[in-house]
Amino acid sequence: MSFNILLKTSERGVFLKEFVRNASKKTGGSTQNTNCKVKPKHRGWKVQDGHFVQAGHMLATQRTTRFHPGLNVGFGVNGTLFAMEAGKVVVTCEKFDPNWDHTWVQRMYKGRYDQTIYKKYYNVIPEPQHQRFKLIDEV
């Protein structure tokens, strides 16, 4: 830190002292705590169309319902879609026919009464069972 002393004369001829303080360092941001950013949640689809999954495998994570559960797919409390059986993942885009009598549907799809509404569904097609055993007698 440095100080400069200025002497000024006033109208009456009296000397006045003024101290001027100059900064010794440039103003700059702090270099500490530079890694305090919010960590991303990595939401979205986890498995693509055509992949094989086991039972309980996460298919998609979401905050709002962007993807909908289809055949052999469960819907978690936080909107997570998961496979209920092992098999092949198939993502389909299907036509949605809402019940226009509900006030919730009227509010959500306001102005889209004449339009065709499509939604994406996750489906898990189970693997075919093996045919090694034959039925001999019925009980």
From TrEMBL:
Gene Ontology biological-process entries: translation
Gene Ontology molecular function, alphabetical: structural constituent of ribosome
Keyword terms, alphabetized: Mitochondrion, Ribonucleoprotein, Ribosomal protein, Transit peptide
Primary localisation category: mitochondrion
SUPFAM superfamilies assigned to the protein according to its UniProt record, in alphabetical order: Ribosomal L27 protein-like
CC per GO annotation: mitochondrial inner membrane; mitochondrial large ribosomal subunit
Subcellular location: Mitochondrion
Superkingdom of the source species: Eukaryota
Record Pfam families: Ribosomal_L27
Alphabetized InterPro entries for the sequence: Ribosomal_bL27
Family, as annotated: Belongs to the bacterial ribosomal protein bL27 family.
Protein's recorded name: Large ribosomal subunit protein bL27m
This protein's encoding gene: LOC114241777
